[in-house]
Amino acid sequence: MSRFLPNVIVSNTLENLGNSEYTASINKAELAKMVQAGIKRLKELQHIDGGWGWWTNDATHPFMTAYVCNGLYLAKKAGHPVPDDMYNGGRNALRELIFNKKSDDPATHAYQMMVALNCGINEVWDKYKTMPLDKENAYTLSLWLQAASLAKDKAMQDKLLDMLMQKVQKTGMGHYWGGKKFYYSWQDDQVETTANAIKAIYMVRPNHEVLPLATRWLMSKREGEAWHNTRQTAMSIYAVNEFIKQEVNAEYTLTLTQNGKTLYTQKIDKNNRNQKQPLVKVKDLQLGNNTINLRLEGTGMAMVSGKLTYFYNENSSNEQQKPVNQKTDNEKTFIVEREYYKLVKKVDVLGKLTYHKEKVDFKNIHSGDEILVKCKVSNIAAQDFVLIEDPIPAGCEFIRDTKGFIIPSEKEYDGITNYWDTYAYNYRNWNRWYTHREYRDNKLAITITKLNPGTYEYSYLLKAQIPGRYHVTPAIASLMYYPEYRGYSAFNTILIKE
Question: In total, how many domains does the chain have?
Fold first, then answer.
């Protein structure tokens, strides 16, 4: 089955694609030979009761019998000849295994039922269908949803779809499902679980809004032109077969409007579906709300991406262009406050050097000045996967080694240790609030796996170097996978003199 099933799935996909530029490089005759070789080998491994096991001489196994039956069903669907005695023997063995309840694994039972319905063993549904518990993993739910679709059990479809959607994981790269560890390792495989979920949801709700997002995530997991292994690749291709058909047979008109004005319209069909479409720039946005509308009329699926860039005009007299006050009514919003202090050297009677803080005058900084930057980040609800990015002015550099800096009232700077490298990373500080902190050329980046409600503070040192007038863009705290939920500090402009 390790080679047979992928070959069969490719064969089914070729049926969907027809004779097109996508199939020109595949030798269909050679593929048919490989499928027949697989059928012959499976015939040799078939047990006397019609089923299959993991090995030639072991007991007939509930999962393996269903697995082979499904492969034979797909082979027949793609037009490959399958011996009737072999196929019917497998169907009879599968029926008996279900009737005798030979498997107590929820996922195996769900898979048996789905395959049985594919193979026309419809009598098993009413007697042996089982509504899975909420604790069942997404892999099992996806199999039951496919079975319910094949059985045309609308009531069970609706319940299963709702249960499956409650388990979806949402990220900036798309949506996915992950399995709980089960007897078969692929039930814990996010790629295979997501592929099965896509297949199941498409069967019952082909226009569901989650499908493009889940397909996007699935495609992002490719390694080159394939997925991690042959099985992942086969299952993923099988899952998106219907989407492939839509793209191959696309015939639609795509229209982009901005505030009711048409910016772009194009008819897409088989003659130009593979051509790169032009970049459409949306400009002259009005103050306040703007509406960007993308409309598809016809059949098929369009893949569209967008990018938003913007800037702050500090000289504008229009209040709507100035940064708004941060709100706290949204639990996903962060409050970010950043302060700058000029460090002034002082030597006491014993010759001890300390640095004292003075509020910085942004118009009176000199090359060589040392600056302490302190930032507070507050949130009112626990958040997972938070990113803080704190840009520095172009004319400044980080002071990465803080040894020798003694700043009264600032425990991070005791003059002996480099606090952030020594205490903030090693075993002596298990209670640090962030996961990772690193200097980049132009910003400080901090990542937090889980940020509980509260106010958190970090700091760093800068040295002013190159004279000039520079903008200081805000420090931003945001959710990594939902960056639209964010908070930011104020804009600043600094003047570095000789």
Answer: 3
Q: Give the strand pairing for 436-439 and 492-497.
A: unpaired
Q: Which of 132, 228, 247 lies closest to 189, judged by CA?
A: 228
Strand partners, 443: 391
In a shared domain, residues 259 and 234: no
Place of tokens 């269908």: 129
Mean pLDDT of the chain: 85
Whether 273 and 368 map to the same domain: the answer is no
- Whether residue 303 lies inside any domain: the answer is no
313 domain residue, yes or no:
no
Do residues 293 and 445 touch, judged by C-beta distance below 8 A?
Answer: no
CA dist 462 and 318 (Å) reads 33
In the chain, the percentage of residues whose pLDDT exceeds 90 is 50
H-type alpha helices, 129-285: 138-150, 154-166, 190-204, 210-220, 230-239, 241-248
Q: Say yes or no: 272 and 415 in one domain.
A: no
CATH number at residue 180: 1.50.10.20
Mean pLDDT of 233-247: 80
- In terms of Cα–Cα distance, which of 94, 161, 98 is closest to 129? 98
Q: Look up the domain containing 373 and give its range.
A: 327-497
Q: Which pLDDT value is given to residue 381?
A: 87
Report the distance separating Cα 215 and Cα 194, nearest Å.
8
Q: What distance in Å separates the CA atoms of residue 394 and residue 452, rounded to the nearest whole number?
A: 33
Shared domain check, 141 and 34: yes
Q: Are residues 213 and 271 in the same domain?
A: no
Note whether 108 and 233 are same-domain residues: yes
Alpha-helical runs (H) found in 347-493? 419-422
Between helices 28-45 and 4-17, what is the axis angle to 10°? 140
Helices then strands, each counted (H, E), the chain: 13, 18
Whether residue 107 contacts residue 184, with contact meaning beta carbons closer than 8 Å, is answered with: yes
Helix (H) or strand (E) holding 456: strand 454-464
Question: Is 466 within the bounds of a domain?
Answer: yes
Q: Are residues 241 and 267 in the same domain?
A: no
Query: Based on the domain organization, do 229 and 288 belong to the same domain?
Result: no
Residue 317 pLDDT > 60? no
- In this structure, is residue 492 part of a structural domain? yes
List, for residues 407-419, the tens digit of each pLDDT value. Answer: 998 888 887 665 5
| Euclidean distance between CA atoms 142 and 191, whole angstroms | 13
pLDDT in tens, 342-377: 999 999 888 889 999 999 999 999 999 999 999 999
Q: Is the pLDDT of residue 69 over 50?
A: yes
The CATH number for 440's domain is: 2.60.40.690
**pTM of the model as a whole:** 0.58
Characterize 373-401 residue by residue with b for buried, 16 or more Cβ atoms within 10 angstroms of its Cβ, and e for exposed: bbbbbbbeeebebbbbbbebbebbebbee
pLDDT digits (tens, 9 = 90+) for 205-229: 988 999 989 998 998 888 887 887 7
